[in-house]
Structure formats: C-alpha cells, structure tokens
Amino acid sequence: MDIRDLSSPEAQEKTRQAKEQFRLGVPVDERSVRKEILESWQRSRSYGLDFETADKSLISPAALKKRIRERQVLYDIAAPVIDKLYDFTTGSGFLSILCDEEGYVLKTIGDDEIRAAAQKNLLVEGCNRSERRIGTNGIGTPLVTHTPIQVFGEEHFHSPHNNRVCSGAPIFGPGGVPIGVFCLTGRSETVSFHTLGLAVSVANDISQQIRMLQAYNTVDRLQKQAELIVETVPSGILLMNKDLEIIRTNSRGAALLHKPQNEIMGKKLHEILHREPFSPDNLEETIDDQKVCIEEGGRKTNFIFTLNAASKDHYVVTFVKTESLQKKIHRLIGSEAYFTFDDIIGRSSGIQNAIALAKIASGNRSTVLLTGESGTGKELFAQAIHNAGPRRDAPFVVLNCAALPKSLIESELFGYENGAFTGARREGYAGKFELANGGTIFLDEIGDMPLDVQASLLRVLQNREVSRIGSTRATKLDVRIIAATNINLPESIKNNAFRGDLYYRLNVFNIHIPPLRERPADIRALAEYFLHKYAEFSSRPVRGFSEEAFRALEGHSWYGNIRELENIIERAIYVARSEFLTVEEIHLVSNFPSTDHVETVPSPKPAPVSSASPDFMGFSPQGGLDLPSLFEAEDPLAAIEYALTAANGNISRAAEMLCANRRTLYRKLHSYGLDPKQLRRQAKRKKSSGGALPGVPNSLNK
User: Which of 233, 258, 401, 507 is the most exposed place for a label (fewest CB within 10 A)?
Assistant: First the structure.
C-alpha cells in the first residue's frame, strides 16, 4: 500500500469500512489497513476505548507550568526550534505540537484558523493525546512504537479526527528513551508524504541538541570532578608538556613546594627543584618512587616523586613528603600504637610500680622485656612506652611469635627478595624490622620463637642491620625493641628451649606486670570501665553492679587476668535484665585450682621489676611443685594430667600452668598417643569427684 495514496477518498473509504468491521468484531482484511494502524486499534480497544468517546480533560495552568519546569531542558531546546519552523511555515495550515513523554501537550503554534479548529477539539496546551486516552493518533502512537508515523483521517481511532492528518516523530533523550513527540497536524488536503519527513527532521534536531547538551554537561561535570579530585588528593600534582614545562599544579603541590601556583606555572621542573629528578631518556616509561631532596631556605625536605606519561605530549608528576608517606603506610598495615599510660587503669602498688618503670623506659632506647601472665596487658604497656617516647610519631610494628609457623616467622621478621623461595612474591616482601625502622618493634610471646630464628634475631640485635632472605644487601636499622612473654625464660634456657645470649640481649629493662588476682584494689575500677565501655557499645541500659556482684568479682581468682574480667563483663551486659548486674549475670565459674590446691601451687608472686622473674607464673621450685620442669623433663605425662585436672580440662589454662603454648601441649599429647578430648573428659571427672587420675604421682594428688 502506497502511503501517498492513503489520503485519497477511495483509500479513506476502505479504511472507514475496515474500522467498522473492527468495531463489530469482524476480521479485518489486512490489505485494507496498514499493519501498524491495525495493531494500534487493537491496543486502543484493549485500553477500554470506543470510537466515539475519549478522555479530553485538561490539566490546570499551574499543573502545566509545573510539568514544563520538570521538563525544562526539553522545553527550552524544542520551543525555539518550533518557533523558527513556524516562521517558515506561516500560512501553511499546519499546527506544530510539542508533547512530553506522557502525551501531554506542552506547546502549540500555528495559524489562527488551525488553532481555532484545534480549540474546538480541545487540542490545546494541557490536553493529553496519549494512545491510552484517545487511541490511535500521531502523538500517542509514536510514544508507544518509538517510530515516526503519519496517521490519515479514518486511521484515527477517535472519529472527530477523521478529517485530519497527523505526522508525529518521537524525540529521544539519553539512552534512546522517548522524552517527547513533535507533531504536525493539518487538513488532509494540505498534507503530503514530505510532511512526515519534516516532522522527523525537527524531532531529530531537538534530540541531537539534547544529546549535545548532555554531553557538554557530562564533560563539564567530569572536568569539575577532576579538578575537585586533583585539589583534594593529599599528593602534590604537576602536569607538564613535552618540554617538561609545568602547565598545571594543584594547591597541595604549591604548598609542598612553598611557592604560589603562578610562580610554578610555565617553569620547567628542574627550575623548581634545582635539579633534574628524571632522566630525559626514560620519560616514556613510568618512573616510580624517585627520592628527591629539596632544600629551601636552609631546610631540607625529602620527597618521593613518581612520573607517568599521560599521553604522547603530557606527563604527570605526583609527589609526597617521605615522612607522610611512611605514616600512611604504617596506618595501612596497622602499625600504630593507640594506648598511652593514661589508658592503664589501676592504683595498686604493683601496677603503679610497673607504670613508673615503664615511664622511665620510655625515655631511652634500651630494649624492654615485659613479663607477666596472659591477659595482664603487656601490649598495652608496650604501646604506652612507645607513645611516651621520642619515637611516638614513628611506626609501632607488632609480631606475635607464637601465631606464625616456623616456616613463616623468618620471612615475616626479616622479609625476602624476589625468588627467595617457592611461592615468594615476585616483588619481594618487606619484613617487620624494615617496616619498624625508625620506630618500635613489639615481639610478643618471644618465648615461643623457634631456636634457629632466635639465632637470626640475635645477629640483627648485635649488628643493628637486617638482610632480607635471599639478599646479600644489609639495611641499617634504628629500631627500639620491646619483647614480651608469659613463659619463664630462665627455666626455658635451662631446658635448652631459649637462647641465653638472646635473653641477656633482651633483658636490659625488665618490667613485670602483676596478675589481676594480686591487684584486688583495681578490680572495681576495671570492672566499671568495661561496664561503661560495653554498655555504650551495645546501647544496653546497664549502669552498675550490685554489691554482691562486686564482692564476687573481688573474690574471684582471675587466672585469666584482665582479659577474663573483660570477657565476663561483656557477656553480662548482654544478658542483664536490669540496670545493675547481679552475681548470676556475671556468671563466675571457678575453673582453676581451688583454695586447697593453692597451698600446693602457690599464688604467683610479683617479681622484682629490676630483674627477670623465674617464678612469675607462680610455679616456683621453692613452692614444692615445679610443673614446668616436670613437664619438660621429669614426668611430662603426670604434669599434663595434673594441669588439666587443675584447669578443669581447659587446654589453654593447662598450657599456661605448664609455661607452654597450646601448640606445644598438643604436640606433646600426640607424641604420647593421647586423645585431648578424652583427657579433658577424664580431667573434669577427676575434678568433680576428687579422685586421682591414673599415672599421677601421689604427691600431685594431695
């Protein structure tokens, strides 16, 4: 069917007959009506429309203004285009119509005659010409099909439009989504096939301008975002041309160079730095981590410069102070100390003595050895010593010697070079000593360090330099060492488990931290601190303790020390039923030696802080029972069974009593072919019944 013949009387009559058949439900001859029109009729009927009536309601002027404001970009671009078109089509009998994506008419312009005719049919600004409202038409149908269409007379679903021809084309916004329609409508005799082409041209012009505006806005936004990023990054940035002239810098760069931006622009890099940091032969490559020292006003500042070729003719240089870069690295790897002496709670003489010695230690660079049971706060003391000393702004690096397998501890401590061993990182790895250079390294649980690693550590302490595994190059070290242990090191030396020469290297400034059970005066203050901490964290309305709860806390043995107290308070906060914690809620469990055992296994006594304490774990040879020695040499099985009984089957507590770590205890159990679970059950039965375990000497079963 030739579209140019659709406006002829014959074609219109065929369309009228086809529409009547459609209205009556009779199958329509597809040769008598276009496919896209028939499909639109079917949609219109599915909307519940009929041929004679339609929704011609108007929105209010205020609602129309609001709708235009919400589509201001479309309106501001389309309105001038439509006005200009009318300048060329005045007197042609066409009405130009701009609609939004919902079919609402936002603007019309045309000759008085066509406007008057449109007014009679309520085709005015504020009306809705969507397909759902009035069926097939040159505005609503393109919004559905996303394609231009010319609707001739009888093809309109609504009968009053039968003497009109509408030529409509969708206006597309970002992403190819229709955001409106431009339509030309006029009497059948004034319309030609080219009218649709004109409508498409206008709609495309509007769409293109909208896309151009969007692209401009995107570029403008990205440029502003780039400027914002450049200005807010903590690094100095220099943009240079191919002649290495600086054409842009950020305010941070100007501040680092102590020059205003206008004094930097246009100058070459070597004029600013008073030296050439990059070789002209290597500018095509990325140059990382170039160290540059700049002297300004008699003051030297070290920087790390990096150069990247941004394009063929442009280079980007970023630079930071070496000092600030190191601080960021240490923050990233968690090598910061947070606690100070003000964070240490306690007024008892034992803890105050330890604090006083720690404050003295903080003022010098001597190696510190912290001794004390697990959970007494040795790392808190280490951080406080670091933060009170001259290295407070330098890194504080922690290594737990018991947390790593023997195969990894050396590479963690000393680092390694590329290819040092199978699985090594291609770029190598900086060890803890390198990361701690200039600051403090805290070697926790030093007593669990393997003997061969102890020998390597001793060399580092003696030579004050470290070599990565696989490297012959040594790095000079300026590191303050703080070590900590809950093991009786002199006893370990006797048992060939710890090197004596390393012990004397470490034991320069010995500070013993007393266990909590020897600080009963501090229990109330510590308990209140943890209560307020976890009540606030959990948003629980707990305000304090009952007096009975306080008395129970002060009477508890606290073999788990401050860590045990903290855990008990945290749990109690969550199960609390009132504002004050009760004895039942703090739920103290006596899972350590009872008072009748304490005479046999003496309560730990604080060692003099000026020397190492061989009995700081509480098992002194003078007390009649030396469990560590029994475990290491005399009768390991008897010592294990006794410790498990005393600890009510708790492996960790038993290991502490034996001056061993869990791994060592498990290894010893397996060497005897013993099942830890079965031993724990036996120990609990023994504890509850008071009977003797087989294989335990009578002296241990008193």
Answer: 258
